[in-house]
Input
Amino acid sequence: MKTIHVGLFGLGTVGAGVVKSLITNEEHIASRTGFRVQVKHALVQSFVKERSVSVPAEFLTMDAQTILVDPDISIVVEVMGGVEPARTYICAALLARKHVVTANKELLAKHGPELMALAAHMGVRLLFEASVGGGIPIVRTLQAYLTANRVSSIRGILNGTSNYMLTQMQVKQVTFADALMDAQRLGYAEADPQSDVEGYDAAYKLLILSNMVFPVQSTLNDIKRKGIVDITPDDIDFASQVDCVVKLIAQASYVDGCVHLDVSPRLIDRLDPLATVRDVFNAVTVSADVVGDLTFIGRGAGEMPTASAIIEDIVEVLRSPRTSVQPLEQHKAVGQDEQVEFLKRKEYYVRIDLANPISNDRINEEMRVSFRESEKVIQIGHSKHQLSHGFLIATEDEERILLFVRKLKAIKCVVFPYEGDKLSILPAQAMVL
Output
């Protein structure tokens, strides 16, 4: 039986999981593919660092060329993260006609098209199932199992760290800072959590999925992005009062030849399939013309879920080493400024923070001045000291919300989409509950 040698760029948490899984399941993989898969070398930054997997000394190298020039190594797995030197190593591997499997969502979001073009030119595979959704097989599903469908939208929870934090804020009624500290203690959040809590990580993943299924080339600049850093326990409480939860939702829609991309917190109905996705789990709902809606839920990160996705890509290379990738049509995506009309939602959740308490009579008066009779406004709650007030507002003119905020002399205002049904069942009028 032929042995396939793999080179590994990185031997951290995920890299160690790949090594352990290939050792544990070597016979099973061989029985399914007809090949033995073994890691020959792993690129590391230190020979003396403690690792969760025991490997012989000759297994490790601090020189990338050890892997890149080895004729026995036909598949390279990149789990280093970051753009450089990962991009340089992947390009070198592709130029050496080695297949590449990567979990690097940031690199793919920023340089994916050029890397895929290089792989196609060299006649090798570039696979990236592990870059989105951890162990959820969403990439393979979109690539191989929905070819008879026209996908109209992708909507999901793509970042496990922010979802864990929002879950803790909901269940334990803790602050954002406490939820972040807990996530860092458990290893879910990095020391610098910006990528997770500001929505960058979800944006990288959304872009990868969008560029796979829509015939339009989008970039990170085309994504309207807002993170969860402004979410407070009041938001969680106000959401529960209208049978909703707060989730960081990533959504890509294809309408009239244009792609519209958005990552932002939203109030979603408790009956929404995404509302029940808790902790570090991810979920993706794909809407297509033939099959309808498909929702995938699973662990979005971690050693073994990510290792599983990487190994499935290795197996895919063994089964189909020459599958070609069709290039995307080079249409321009709709940028943030051009998305305004499409993304201008009629229904919003608004939280207003005040320096001093005010009465409901004052709020009612400012509502009458700020909004038309055809618009709907509901006050859904206020904090104990009446310094934070939550509203649901239905309006096609976001400027009216800003006018309302100014009249109340708010010191802070948080606005994001509302996807429940409380406003739709009300008559057209401004009102306070």
Observations:
- The longest strand covers residues 244-255.
- The mean pLDDT is 90.
